[in-house]
């Protein structure tokens, strides 16, 4: 490891992998599951979180908490058991954040308050950001149980806040996928509506092959369109549209998942992105499929695949996600793509679209067995 010399003369050995910071709500969920009166669900969640934190340490990540998180977690009656929990999971307080001037940390905290964060969340984000600056890390990873608007507001203040959802099972795609139970066909409706998300999630739980069965996506497409597409002359063109936009949608969903996007961000930023330019050359020779029909079919398949890809990558562990981000970032750098210094740029469609493009050789290998006809 290469030593790092800080402005105050301190010499430190840089870790092989970047550290991660934990929010208080994760620690409280673990502690709640250790109570004698804890429910079965609370105990199971606690064990999953403990295992994931230990796995992060095994993978080479230092697991840290900011001073504000430590103070909040250890105050009151839970102090003694809290100290033991931190020791057992090898979680340590971040001392390096003090190398950043206190006035700067206060300024970041005030900015968080002015942009919708609570006083506590503002302090945590400012201190994690300071810890990242002290280590030369842009957008340090803050794992939290917060979601929705709070998660988005955190990301706009210089940290990569990720919703901590340790998977019950670390997903693997077997070469020979066993035949899953039948999944009820998804309800018809808007391709970006609640029924659509529910259908995609239900399909994903049964496995990628089941999720991409033709009948499980067909309910998203009007019957008239399917009747036209079933004409012999149009079948090959229809199949090409399916394959192209399932692959592209799956890659975008995976990219959003590895970047820690929320469902709300996916729904508002990644859906309904089909343009006339993207479907050029997909017409059938006989002209049976109109441009409107092609656009409608492409949109349905891509939207559905986005959700499946997002569910797939969101369920992966942090090590897998970071490896995918590193792989994609390297290629983007090689091709000269630069998205500025604003962390919010990482949560815009343009970035995910480019990241998905770099990851598509990998994601294609994952999804192709499920859509092979």
From TrEMBL:
Organism: Bradyrhizobium brasilense
Listed name of the protein: DUF4935 domain-containing protein
Organism domain of life: Bacteria
């Amino acid at each position: 490891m290469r030593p790092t010399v800080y402005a105050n003369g301190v010499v430190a050995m840089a870790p092989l992998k970047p550290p991660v910071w934990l929010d208080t709500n994760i620690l409280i969920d673990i502690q709640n599951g250790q109570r004698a009166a804890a429910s079965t669900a609370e105990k199971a969640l606690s064990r999953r979180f403990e295992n994931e934190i230990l796995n992060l340490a095994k993978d080479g990540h230092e697991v840290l908490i900011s001073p504000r998180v430590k103070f909040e977690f250890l105050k009151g009656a839970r102090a003694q058991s809290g100290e033991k929990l931190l020791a057992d999971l090898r979680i340590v307080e971040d001392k390096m954040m003090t190398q950043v001037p206190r006035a700067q940390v206060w300024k970041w905290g005030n900015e968080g308050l002015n942009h919708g964060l609570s006083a506590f969340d503002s302090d945590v984000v400012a201190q994690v950001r300071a810890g990242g600056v002290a280590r030369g890390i842009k957008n340090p990873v803050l794992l939290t149980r917060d979601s929705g608007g709070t998660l988005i507001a955190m990301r706009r203040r210089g940290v990569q806040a990720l919703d901590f959802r340790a998977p019950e099972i670390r997903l693997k795609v077997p070469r020979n996928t066993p035949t899953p139970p039948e999944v009820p066909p998804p309800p018809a409706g808007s391709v970006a509506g609640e029924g659509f998300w529910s259908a995609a999630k239900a399909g994903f739980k049964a496995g990628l092959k089941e999720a991409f069965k033709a009948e499980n996506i067909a309910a998203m497409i009007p019957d008239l369109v399917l009747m036209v597409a079933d004409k012999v002359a149009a079948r090959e063109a229809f199949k090409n549209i399916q394959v192209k936009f399932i692959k592209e949608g799956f890659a975008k969903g995976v990219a959003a998942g590895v970047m820690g996007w929320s469902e709300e961000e996916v729904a508002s930023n990644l859906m309904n992105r089909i343009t006339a330019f993207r479907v050029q050359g997909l017409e059938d020779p006989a002209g049976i499929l109109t441009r409107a029909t092609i656009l409608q079919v492409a949109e349905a398949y891509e939207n559905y695949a986005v959700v499946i890809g997002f569910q797939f990558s969101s369920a992966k562990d942090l090590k897998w996600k970071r490896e995918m981000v590193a792989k994609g970032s390297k290629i983007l750098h090689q091709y000269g793509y630069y998205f500025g210094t604003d962390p919010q740029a990482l949560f815009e469609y343009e970035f995910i679209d480019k990241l998905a493009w770099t990851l598509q050789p990998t994601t294609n290998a994952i999804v192709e067995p499920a859509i092979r006809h």
